[in-house]
Amino acid sequence: MIKQLLSAAALTIFLVACDNTPGSEDSGEMVDASPVTEDANVPDPDVTTNTESEIAFVRKRFDRVQEMEAAGTLRCDTLSYNCDEESGGGSFTFCYVADDLVRASHEFYLGDHGGGSETYYFDEEDLYFAHLTQSSWRFASPPDQDDGTYTVDEVNEERRYFYNGNMIDRLYKDYQVESWKESPDPSTLPNTQTGTGVSAQVSGDQMLEIARSREFDCD
């Protein structure tokens, strides 16, 4: 078993910019950066259904984190790890407001031909949004050539909404990046209700545990 011990002495402060707005290309109106309070806009915690109010509540909390990042009030620690050549490696970035974890990201590569990222958003350790991306590449050529010197990336994304401990919605985005063409702008591509899906390398609960222990097991 290979175990990566992530020492607190090795922490570096790092701010991460992200473009993973829940469910749409428009992040919506920015809101006050104060904590979300119970009011008429907060869904009933005893009811979990895929309703507009619950999705709006997720976006409100997401936008609050984005606003705090823009204001420079997030403290982010980046922790790197390396496994064997087949397992790959990567890094975790944990962002806090005071001592409260509000965003945790994992960027990773899998061998030579794959990788991805997964970002989880928390409110007092309550997971409310996850953006997952995985990609793999292969050699290919445009139709009028056959020299195999080009590549095609297959990219799969998922956006998952959570409320009251349950996933209430998920959106998909699948696309190709062909090296002989201009790359598409992922933010302009539509989300869909069905898709390939992404298998998370690290779950939300595991991310919380890694944030606490500063320890990651490659196996």
UniProtKB/TrEMBL annotation:
Region (Disordered): 25-48, 181-204
Species in which this protein is naturally found: Neolewinella aquimaris
Name by which UniProt lists this protein: Lipoprotein
Biased composition (Polar residues): 185-204
PROSITE patterns documented for this protein: PROKAR_LIPOPROTEIN
